[in-house]
Design brief:
The protein is an alpha/beta fold and about 500 residues long. The protein has helices spanning about 1-15, 45-55, 65-85, 125-140, 195-200, 210, 230-245, 255-270, 270-280, 280-285, 290-300, 315-325, 380-385, 400-410, 420-430, 435-450, 460-480, 500-505; strands spanning about 110-115, 120, 165, 170-175, 180-185, 190, 220-225, 285, 305-310, 335, 350-355, 375, 395-400, 415-420. The model is unreliable at about 1-10 and about 15-60 (pLDDT under 50).
Amino acid sequence: MALGLLKSIRVGLQKGAAGCTALHGVTASCQCRSDAKRPPSPGPQQHHRSRAKRSVSIAPEKVHDKTYLWARYREMKKLVYDLLPPGVCSLLNPATIYANNEISLGDVEIYGFDYDYTLAHYSSFLHTMIFNKAREILLEQYKYPKGIKSYEYIPSFAIRGLHYDVQKSLLMKIDAFHYIQSGTAYRGLQPVSDQEVIEMYGGTQHIPLHQMSDFYGKGPIVKQFMDIFSLPEMTLLSCVNDYFITHNIEFDPVHLFKDVTDSIKDVHVKGMMYQWIEKDMEKYILNGDETYAILNRLANSGKKLFLITNSPFSFVDKGMKHMVGKHWRELFDAVIVQADKPSFFTDRRKPFRRLDESGSLQWDRITSMEKGKIYRQGNLYDFLQLTGWRGPKVLYFGDHLYSDLADLMLRHGWRTGAIVPELHTEIRIINTEQYMHSLTWLQALTGLLERMQVHHDAESKMVLNEWLKERQELRSVTKNLFNPQFGSIFRSYHNPTYFSRRLCRFSDLY
């Protein structure tokens, strides 16, 4: 259906200016309008007769360029309206699994999982708690101004995959080609104009990430926020920056960044988050019945299952008992906790240690992975040696593209699956009539601009500028449907996002 719509639009555009296909903003070499068919050239014997006929014929009235452009505009808008009658939406299933790479699930024998935001999904209440506790740590331990307490968590402010320039205190969305998307740079809670951004980066919106950030997006100058737990961190960073800026308080942006990230880290490392979840599983853990159904189906199909998580055993055990039942360990051929990913995948030095039933560390040497037993730390190289689980027969799922998936795909050849909860929400937005109509008309209008830019008279340029303005307004409408500040996590206005590029590179499925 979608392909049919686009094909019809292309046909409609080609009727107006076939052959003029230069990109918008580049003057086309074709200066003709091909909407009127030219008669064939007369043969030698007909030349005199044709010339005689022309001498007495009346020249047709010239169509005014401005009139012609608006006629094409109205024709195309009617075409788009006719192609999208009510009820044409809901083309995409929000529960669909997408593939970046060809994969036969029939060849997969072993399934591995991360825990947080893979097997266990959490409600938005958790992000509010993380934000509030980290804000409290800033006030009490780091002695930040008391006025910061007035800032509350804003669930709709940030999206996953954003970059943060530590030295400039700039939170921004970068596309697959390392350009900042226009209108998506924020200092504090306020947008920074495109012109100011260009001046900040020496006359360009291009960010040389190879100079400013490492492979895992951890800086030192630019950091990328890739996991779902980073949403309260980005919001707290923006709120603290906003307080200092609006109150004209001088600060070192590097110190501010470190203090905020350390405060967020304390919430995780000191076990505060684990305690909140353990006290009220019903409030914080979502979709536990789905986790139970998937694991049982795989196990009953003869697949081997394993779990590798950075979370501690007591926390994982309580969560899995809540979702799957008290015998959850019988489903798994190997369970590894406090694995310290991503170094688990690259560092050979840490050995595995076994935990007893009470969670206490044992001192025996690990020579095999036993079903139902719990292991701590270790490294992937020993894991491969102990299990023999190598190559494409293994499929591992995680939510963090770097910490969970990148090394497994690039270094070890495992199949990988990315858990992207935002996908469900974004597809529901894509299926709305407002988005479908806006996007289809945006594509049609862009096509008109590409083909009609050959008109160079003053009035035509005014028409084209009006179309450009409308095009920008349509871009803003479609962006704001996803998130008013940063838009979709998958696309900038016309390119995939940097997050989307990494998603395609490090995951076979999502």
